[in-house]
Write a structure and sequence with these properties.
This protein has 377 residues and is of the alpha/beta class. It folds into two domains: 237 residues, Type I PLP-dependent aspartate aminotransferase-like (Major domain) (Aspartate Aminotransferase, domain 2); 135 residues, Aspartate Aminotransferase, domain 1, CATH 3.90.1150.10. It has 14 helices and eleven strands. A seven-stranded mixed β-sheet has the order 1-7-6-5-4-2-3, sandwiched between helices. The longest helix is centred in the last third of the chain and has 21 residues. Bound molecules: pyridoxal-5'-phosphate. The site of pyridoxal-5'-phosphate has 16 residues, from helix 3 and helix 4.
Length: 377
């Protein structure tokens, strides 16, 4: 079966009453059956969560799925494989929540961390040390939409006996499947495209390897950062339309990126689908689509950029991404306001950078809104 069919039919069998849509199993305990291994207690496992885990595994073409209470809880589960020691290589321009997790929790706990340029494959190889255990990357990155050559980094990981984990949130399982490119672990913030309606937090890990699965599974039930049945159900409802939504996000993103590029008040547009993107060819090789995130630098100072953002009517200024509604983000004043100006400059996030999460509204309405707001710059 193809993805669009699998996401609707996998693991969501009717119950004994013939309900076409599986119910929410809003129960913590399940009756104990002495000699059969069924459900016992919802921190360990729950039927609604299990359905979601199966569907997410399918979405990535993977064997095992694990659901978590948030994207960062899923990343924490993967990083727990380090067992509080060893060296971790992370691509730069990483999601700021992940950066916070690494710097505030994992580094103080004893993990050594090296950041490398996401687009420079050789820098990954050069950073491998004797005690390196894991490489964590995002591709495309946030907010600069850099592309990491997943196949090449997976080959380095393979040669050196290191695990490669890929945060696939921005591409979604529709446009990129890192396990097929050689990664060992795929991570999602299902809060974003997978649930798709900005109304539920969640995270997921997908792996093929049985031992890896059992290790992360043990962590999941022991540490307990699991999503409730209702959140799982909402995510299951969202994921059914994922292929449809991703096509619409991409179509709109491409349309806006091309128009932004031609506008005199826009100095740079970053979208992996544009031939002008420095890694457009690599993106084409490892992705089957370019998703719905577009970043742009305005030919404006900080206050001009803020005037533009305040003038937008269809793009609320908000964190998060991947919902049906468009959003705009101002990294210098939001996510990246917590790091030093020097580090911002090093990463390449300047005051005039805006990031659009392009929704599935009518694309002409979206462009008209951006055009009128650019007049205020
Ligand atoms: C949002 C996000 C996360 C964190 O997910 P939460 O669900 O907010 O915990 C991690 N990685 C990326 C790329 C994200 O966009």
């Amino acid at each position: 079966m193809k993805l669009a069919t699998k996401l609707i039919h996998t693991a969501q069998q009717p119950d004994g009453l013939g309900a076409v849509i599986s119910p929410v199993y809003q129960s913590v305990p399940f009756e104990h059956e002495y000699d059969r291994r069924g459900f016992e207690y919802s921190r360990s496992s729950n039927p609604t969560r299990q359905m979601l885990e199966s569907v997410i595994a399918e979405s990535e073409g993977g064997k095992h799925g694990l659901a978590f209470a948030s994207g960062v809880a899923a990343i924490t589960a993967a990083l727990n494989l380090l067992r509080g020691n060893g060296h971790l290589i992370v691509s730069d321009d990483i999601y700021l929540g992940t950066y916070g997790l690494l710097e505030q929790i994992f580094r103080p706990w004893g993990i050594e961390i090296t950041y490398v340029k996401a687009e420079n494959t050789e820098s990954f190889r050069a950073s491998v040390k004797k005690n390196t255990r894991l490489i964590l990357i995002e591709s495309p990155t946030n907010p600069l939409l850099k592309i990491t050559d997943i196949r090449a980094v997976a080959a380095i990981a393979e040669q050196t006996g290191i695990l490669l984990a890929v945060d696939n949130t921005f591409a979604s399982p529709v446009f990129q499947n890192p396990l097929q490119l050689g990664a060992h672990i795929v991570i999602h913030s299902t809060t974003k495209y997978i649930s798709g309606h900005s109304d539920v937090l969640g995270g997921a890990v997908v792996v093929n390897d049985d031992r890896l699965y059992h290790e992360i599974r043990t962590y999941q039930r022991s540490a307990g950062a699991v999503p409730g049945p209702w959140d799982c159900w909402l995510t299951l409802r969202g994921i059914k339309t994922l292929p449809l939504r991703m096509r619409a996000h991409q179509e709109n993103a491409f349309y806006l990126a091309e128009r932004l590029q031609r506008h005199p008040l826009v100095s740079r547009v970053i979208y992996p689908g544009l031939p002008e993107h420095p890694q457009h060819e690599l993106a084409q090789q490892q992705m089957s689509g370019f998703s719905g995130m577009v970043s742009a630098e305005l030919a404006a100072d900080l206050s001009g950029t803020q005037r533009f953002i305040k003038s937008l009517k269809l793009f609320p200024l908000a964190a998060s991404l991947g919902g049906v509604e468009s959003l705009v983000n101002h990294p210098a004043k939001m996510s990246h306001s917590f790091i030093s100006a020097a580090l911002r400059a090093e990463i390449g996030v300047n005051d005039s950078l805006v990031r659009f999460s392009v929704g599935i509204e009518d694309k002409d309405d979206l462009w008209k809104d951006i055009e009128q707001a650019l007049k205020q710059v």
